Amino acid sequence: MGDGSSSGVQRYVEQGAKWLERRKAYRDSVRKLHFDTIAVHGMYSLDEAFAGGQGGIIEPIFPATSQAYRDSDEMEAALSYQIPTWCYSRIHNPTVFYLEETLALLESYGCDCNASALCTSSGMAAIKQAVEPLLANQGDAAERINFVSAAQVYGGTFQLFNVRMAERGAKVRWVTEPWHMDEWQELVDDDTRFLYAEMPSNPQQAFCDVRAVADVAHRHGIPFIVDSTIATPALMRPLEHGADIVVHSLSKTAGAGGCTISGGIVARHGLVSRHLPPEVQADYATWLKLWPFRDSGPCMSPYTAFILLNEIRTLRLKMEQLSANTVKVAEFLSHHPKVERVDYLGLPNHRLHDLATRYMRLVDDGSPVYGHLMSFVIAGTPADARRFFDGLQRIVRATDLGRIKSVATIPAISTHQQQGEEGRKLAGIPLTMVRLCVGGEHPDDTIADLDQALARI
C-alpha cells in the first residue's frame, strides 16, 4: 500500500519509465511497417491483446469515465503527470489513445520527423484547439496579432477565423489565390502567428504549394497548418513536405461510414514557432492534451474512437476506389452542356492539376490520385441549380461529405451560407455551384442520376 513517501511515488515513476521505453521500442518498430499494415494494426500488439484484452484481435472499448489506482502513491504520480495515465476520459482514454497513435503514425508515414496526435469531438474543435494557443496575447503586440489563411476553407472555418478569432483580437488576412506565392509573402509580417490552408479545399478544390508556403512560414519563425480532411494521409501527408500541424475532420473521409462526429490534430515534434516555449514546440499535440484541451474538454468518445479505428483500417483501399469513381463522374460532367465548369483536381485541364499532382499521390503506389470531392457550376440560374438539386433521386441531399454514399449540396445555401455574399465572393462560391462528394456506388449509376437531374433544367 502507499505510505505517502516519495519513495513510493518513485517506484511508480520507475515502472512508468520502463513502460514508456517498451512502448517507444514497439512504436519504432511499427513506424517501419507499410501504410496498410499500420492502418490495420496501429499500436495494438498481440502481447497487449493477451495481456489486457483477453486475446481480442481488435482494440477494446474502454467506456469507463476514469481509471482506478492501486494506492495513493500511484494516484499522486499519475495526477502530477509523472507516469502514463488515463485518469479521466475528458483528458485521455485507452481506446482514443489507440486511434491517436494510429493517426500520428499514418500522417508521419515516410517522413523523417516524428509526430503526436490529439483526437477531438469534432473537426471544428480540432481547428480551434490547434490555433488558439498560437494567438495568445504577448504584451505590446496584442493589438497587432494576425494570421494568414487561404480564403477557400470550409464555411465553419471561415466563420471561426473571420468572427470568433476577431472577437479575441486576432485578425485574419485572407489569401484569395493561395496557389500564387506572392500573396502569402505580402501578407506575413512580424506579428503573424501562423499560416493556414485547406487542401483540397471544400468545395472549390483550391490548392497551394505546400513546401513553398511552409518555407515562407519558417522564414518568419511560425508554423504552417494544413487541413487535410479531404486528402487523408492515404493521398497526402503535409508533414512530409514541411507543414507543422495537420488538422482533420475525421467525421468526413476517414470516417466514411458516416456514424460519428470527430476531429484530429497531428503535430510534428519540434514544430516551428517563435511564440511558443521550447517544451511546447517539442510535442505540441501532447501539450495541448495535458493543458488547454484538458481545461476546455472537447474530448472524443471511446465509442467514436472504436468506430474510426475500424474505418481507417481500409483507408487506402477506399480512397483508391472512391477517387477512381470520381474521375469518371467528373469527366461526364465536364462534357455536359448544362454544366458551365467542373472543379476537380483530377481533370488535366484544371488550372491546379499539375500543382496537385506533385503532392496528391496514392501512398506506397505513387500514382496521382485526387480524392472524391468535387464541385461544378450549373450553366443557368440559381433556380436552375435548385431544380437540378431537387431532382436527384439516389445522390443524397445533405451538408455532409466524405461518405461511402454520394452526397451533394449547394454550398451557398448551406455550408457556406453563414459567411455572407461578400465572403462567398471572396472564396469563389457562386449561387449556382453544386458540391458533390462521390461515394462507393458504381459510377455509372451515379452518372445516370446526375444525367436525369440535369435533364430537368
Task: Walk me through this protein's architecture.
- The chain is α/β, with parallel strands linked by helices and 457 residues long.
- It folds into three domains: 6-79, no CATH class; 94-312, Type I PLP-dependent aspartate aminotransferase-like (Major domain) (Aspartate Aminotransferase, domain 2, 3-Layer(aba) Sandwich), CATH 3.40.640.10; 315-454, Aspartate Aminotransferase, domain 1.
- It has 19 helices and twelve strands.
- It has helices at 6-31, 35-41, 46-52, 72-79, 94-107, 123-131, 155-167, 181-187, 210-219, 232-235, 278-282, 284-290, 292-296, 302-312, 315-334, 353-359, 382-390, 420-427, 443-454; strands at 115-120, 146-150, 171-175, 192-198, 224-227, 245-248, 263-268, 339-343, 373-378, 396-397, 407-409, 433-437.
- The protein has a seven-stranded mixed β-sheet with strand order 1-7-6-5-4-2-3, with helices on both faces. It has a five-stranded mixed β-sheet with strand order 8-9-12-11-10.
- α7 (155-167) links the parallel β2 (146-150) and β3 (171-175).
- α2 (35-41) runs antiparallel to α5 (94-107), α5 (94-107) runs parallel beside α14 and α15 runs parallel beside α19 (443-454).
- The mean pLDDT is 95.
